[in-house]
Specification:
Blueprint (H helix, E strand, L loop, with lengths): L2 E9 L4 H11 L4 E8 L3 E8 L2 H10 L3 E13 L4 H11 L4 E8 L5 E8 L2 H10 L3 E2 L2 H4 L1
Antiparallel strand pairs: 1-3, 1-4, 2-3, 4-6, 4-7, 5-6
């Protein structure tokens, strides 16, 4: 039940991020979540979008290096300690977390968190066992 994420390699120069977001906008692709990490020469843009395959096609046609990665999406209640509870469940199960980022749920009553781990199925099982609900592609759209 993992969700698809675009990983886009972006040159760290003025206007490049604008170009990429304009490419997606002109193709009527909605961005639900994004995260960017940068270094001196390039950035890694992570996106969850309304149409992953179409976005990859549009970006690739415009010379942008992009790949699709599956991440675990988990719903967290809007109360203190929920993220810590989810991360603790993964830690107790020996599941290493590579990165995460949060984004708002459409319903406004919870937050969604995208988690990159080595084994999506194991992470989902652990989180369900701990009482968490997974985010699906339909939740995002």
């Amino acid at each position: 039940m993992a969700i698809k994420q675009l990983t886009v390699f972006v040159e760290n120069k003025q206007g490049r991020l604008v170009e990429i977001t304009e490419m997606l906008a002109s193709a009527s692709i909605d961005m639900s979540a994004l995260s960017i990490a940068d270094t001196r020469d390039f950035g890694i843009l992570r996106l969850i979008v309304s149409d992953t395959e179409k976005a990859r096609e549009v970006l690739t046609e415009n010379g942008v290096l992009v790949q699709i990665t599956e991440v675990v999406g988990v719903k967290l209640s809007d109360r203190p300690g929920e993220l810590s509870r989810a991360l603790s469940a993964l830690d107790r199960a020996g599941i290493n977390l590579e990165y995460l980022y949060a984004f708002l749920a459409v319903n406004g009553h919870s937050a969604y968190v995208a988690l990159r781990v080595e084994n999506n199925e194991a992470a989902e099982a652990v989180l369900r066992e701990a009482g968490f609900e997974m985010v699906t592609e339909q939740d995002i759209k």
